[in-house]
Amino acid sequence: MLHDLFYKAKNHFKTSKPFVLYRKPSESTVNGVFQKDDVLHYVEDFSKTGFIFAPFNTDDRIVLLQSDEKHEAEYIASESIKDLASLSVVQDDAQKEFHINLVHKAIEAIENAGVKKVVLSRKLEVGTRKSAFTLFDALLASYSNAFCYLWYHPKVGLWLGATPEILLRTENKQLKTMSLAGTKKVEEGKAPVWGTKELEEQKLVTDYIVAALESSVDNLTISETESVRAGSLWHLRTSVSGRLATYNLKEIIAALHPTPAVCGLPKAQAKAFILENENYAREYYTGFLGELNFKEENFRSSNRRNRENQAYKTVKNTTSLYVNLRCMQLKDKKALVYVGGGITHESDPEKEWEETVAKSNTMLKVVL
């Protein structure tokens, strides 16, 4: 039962032991991974099994939460929190001015310094009396098509989020990923109309992913670009899939992360601009997280009591990683909410600020 899963996680939290609760997009099962001690483990070569939590900055180390225990439970949303109303947040004029000036500076770099795109972000701090588990329950109820998670390590911190973006999924040697860019507010009853800026941004991300994978993935297949809804926002999405020539997860992740959707192009120049000009450390925002080398059993029959068909089960080695967007960190009775957006030569600084305001609603409306 979900109550038992939450109870175990709360006990781990009280005794300062690492755990993660999460639900994959469009699924009803909430998974729990629990580590028996507070040792801080790191990923070296992506050969181990566990739940990983990676920072934006690739110079920093990736945390591995060991799966000493795994549990799962079915989730049914509470009617009282299924639909959370949008809200108006008091505007921080100083932060608005800084962000708009930063966008101007990025556009100047794009025009004069060879940068094609840079993703700029900011951090909001708001007080909250709600527990991490109450907030996680609200995310589960509100964002059924997102990867929702609550992650804790006493030596790192407490994070939660609802992200719409897959970094990659592998099943044995099959790989799937996506490019996700462009943002528009949902207007009920109306399909989104995309402008040059959003379409160009989406193409930059897709082209980068395809180029990054060409040498290590065979039979690359690129889908048509489609509009997908994530809460109160529309995004553009293109799916990319293929077969791994060799299973070198470290090499593939290094090629993809950070993607142009969270960093920019060229990667090195965009990352340098971010680290030099953003006025805070992103930490794990725009990093990635998820299952590493999990074993997944598939049966010929969905009826596990059918012993005859048990002989036809297959075991797959799977890795499912998600980009850490639409997230927050809980610290000292405050929620630190992270939002950002992609800047190109077509960007309008005022509209870019408004986009971050719209994106912040995803987290703020469960916090406030």
UniProtKB/TrEMBL annotation:
Residues 99-296, 316-359 form the Chorismate-utilising enzyme C-terminal domain. Coiled coil: none annotated. Gene3D superfamilies: Anthranilate synthase. This is Isochorismate synthase. It comes from Cellulophaga algicola (strain DSM 14237 / IC166 / ACAM 630).
